[in-house]
Amino acid sequence: MSKKILVTGGAGYIGSHTTVELQNAGYEVIIADNLSNSDPQVIDGITRITGKKPHFELIDCNDRAGMQAIFEKYQGIEGIIHFAASKAVGESVQKPLLYYRNNLVSLLNILELMPLYGVKGIVFSSSCTVYGQPDILPVDENAPIKPALSPYGNTKQICEEIINDSIHSGAPYRAILLRYFNPIGAHPSAEIGELPLGVPQNLIPYLTQTAMGIRPELSVFGNDYNTPDGSCIRDYISVVDLAKAHVIAMQRMINKLSDNAIETFNLGTGRGVSVLELIEAFERATGVKVPHKIVGRREGDIEQVWANPYRANNILGWTAHETLDDTLASAWRWQVRLRERGIM
Ligand code: UD1
Are 275 and 221 in contact (CB under 8 A)? Predict the structure, then answer.
């Protein structure tokens, strides 16, 4: 019998790609999602790719009784991947309490329920935002956690602390904290991808929408940073590569392959790419021009950050394989598919 994994936020961008990889690896996936930032059609996309429909439960993870009902219904859930969270940095500054409630309460509910149902482990969706602007680049997992620049960033730090404290108190489960750098791109089938509601805040959806003519031009936030071309540097990682790391992390926990009850891994490529380089790479990979202009810096932006993924490479045996050009081409194919479907 295949092992059951609960994926909160499984209809979202990273959650849907991870569900595909889990199903491809033979797991039975139960998605718990309130569809607050995703579309139910995602489930059809997952089904078309894998030939298997994941279980789907429409639920807000803050609803403890509702979550408990899921554990009752699907007896024997072995692991949880917790993606469900609010993630817009700017919005979190406007609505901090909403962010603290959504991101903290849902985690508390899950951690309290796990021991009651014998769940072996949780993979937590964290972010390189916990490092702030690192003093040393590339940044590894031992780098100090810097004061958060937004309530969103703070929720990621607090959630990591909650999981740490819980494990150290002797909780009967394991945890793996995955700190993502900048996930981009889409599944190569273009059946699933990033679907931001409203005006995108993140670079890639804004860029692909501009290339499609939905937006007149892309604003490059600053060219006066202390970087070779003056624009910010990030570590852009294929969402499919990222999704695969979750499967490895889950196997590691369920099979108790580590001596440690809690582990933290950076998930990045190890390569820093500037905003201007990224635009150039997109144009090269797709042959489509991206009208853009330089504007002022965006408040709260970090100048440059990229991963030292050594620990994930060596301990998880995971490496980001996709090239930047292929990943950008997949983001474009997804945008084209959205147009074909009349969605955008
Ligand atoms: C941010 C968060 C990160 C979060 C992620 C997902 C911080 C410091 N980072 O990442 O924690 O997980 O969003 O929501 O809080 N840019 C432009 N023009 C645009 C949009 C972006 O030039 O229209 C630039 C930004 O200045 C940045 C880069 O593109 O240098 C990437 O931006 P974005 O995609 O928003 O991601 P981060 O800010 O790195």
Answer: yes
CA of 191 to the centre of ligand 1 (A): 24
- Determine the distance separating the centroid of ligand 1 and the alpha carbon of 129, expressed in angstroms: 10
61 in the same domain as 102: yes
- Within a domain: 191: no
- Tell me, yes or no, whether 224 and 106 share the same domain: no
Co-location of 21 and 151 in the same domain: yes
User: What pLDDT, on the 0 to 100 scale, is given for residue 222?
Assistant: 98
What domain range includes position 145? 4-184+237-267
The pTM of the full predicted model, rounded to 2 decimals, is 0.98
Q: What pLDDT was estimated at residue 196? A: 85
pLDDT mean values, one per 10 residues, the chain (344 residues): 95 98 98 95 98 98 98 98 95 96 98 98 97 97 95 97 98 98 98 93 97 98 98 98 98 96 98 98 98 95 97 98 98 97 88
On whether both 261 and 328 belong to a single domain, the answer is no
Predicted pLDDT at 79:
98
Beta partners for residue 58, in sequence order: 33
Same-domain status, 121 and 224: no
Residues 178 and 274 in one domain: no
Ligand 1 and 310: CB distance under 6 A:
no
How large is the angle between the packed helices 239-254 and 13-24, nearest 10 degrees?
60
Query: Is 117 noted as a catalytic residue in this protein?
Result: no
The CATH number of whichever domain residue 109 belongs to comes to: 3.40.50.720
Determine which helix (DSSP H) or strand (DSSP E) holds 316, and give its type and residue range: none
CA 87 – CA 218 distance, rounded (Å): 21
Is 91 a pocket residue for ligand 1 (Cβ < 6 Å)?
no
pLDDT value for 150: 93
- Residue 103 Cα, ligand 1 centroid: separation in angstroms? 19
Atom in ligand 1 nearest the alpha carbon of residue 218: 23
Element (H, E) at 264: strand 262-267
- Residue 9 has phi, psi (to 5 degrees) of 70, 25
**Domain count along the chain:** 2
pLDDT of residue 132: 94
Q: Which atom of ligand 1 is nearest to the CA of 298?
A: 26
Q: Which has the closest alpha carbon to 264: 303, 302, 310?
A: 310
Does residue 190 fall inside a structural domain? Answer: no
